[in-house]
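Hi everyone, sorry if this is the wrong subforum. Our group has a chain we'd like a structural model of before ordering constructs, and none of us has done structure prediction before. Sequence below.
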Amino acid sequence: MLIERTATGEGSGAVLDARDYLQADELAALCKRSDLRAWLLVTANWASIAAVLTPLALAPGPLTVLLALLLLPGRQLGLAVLMHEAGHGTLFASSRLNRLVGQWLCALPVFNDLPSYAAGHREHHRKAGTRDDPDLPNYAAYPVDRASFRRKVLRDLSGRTGLRLLAAVARGAAGGVTAGATRAGTRPFRQMLLVQAVLLALALLSGLPWLYAAWLGSFLTTFMLVIRLRQVAEHAAVPDLYHPDPRQNTRTVDAPWWQRWLLAPNGVNFHLEHHLLPRVPCYRLRRFHRLLRERGALDSVPATRSYGAVLSAVIGPAPAPA
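Answer:
Right subforum, don't worry. Here is the predicted structure as tokens:
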């Protein structure tokens, strides 16, 4: 299943067709899917989860708990990004692997459901640049003042955002973290419970129940904040949110490696390129970005080099008194 974007924006002006900047063989190479590359990403993501949890397993205490809460969200987001790729049909070359691995090893561990997520995300791609984009509530209000942003951060870190999300999941919604929420029904919820039970059982059998507590606690708190930062980085406070050209309504953050590891794993920071050609797998987006830059397709797009720069763009001064 490939999710394509239709240019139905409300703004005026030319819409970039990235294919005008690519030779046919380059386009084919960029869109080529690889089961090997996909398996390497999935394996590396789970290996990094194990590595983050190892200090907590060996020496449980306040410091290792804090370390887990800081580092696990990026690894959980890594799974969500791979689910996103599988929803586009671009992670694996095999459609069956996209469905099975995308659901069981990527979506369900982070309380999501691949089919319902893909349905909501398809609408985002079709309607990005319009007032009908289902993801607009995630970023339309930006920039916001510092007090407003502080309240959002406190809601995330206190667990209020995460608990609301889990309540919605229990009612049968899915995709709300990473796309417009859709009805998923009860079967995905049962699958989520099964996968979470397996993760809990593994922790209990290892005699390390606090590892699952860290997994769930991170999901409910710091992961919610990381997801918020990812959402605003992609579409908030852009030049023209209601323009059909992704160069106007979407942002790429070419951040340092350590920021990408913490906040934007698996190429998700190249979001402008993803909206231009959703067929390009996440493991080829950097090359796509480089080609577009070299050939002048992004000359009009200011380069954003860090997530600090994103925060400067999305957090504005307090509104003047009426």
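For your construct planning: Residues 1-12 have pLDDT under 50 and may be disordered. Strands lie at 144-145, 173-174, 182-183, 315-316.
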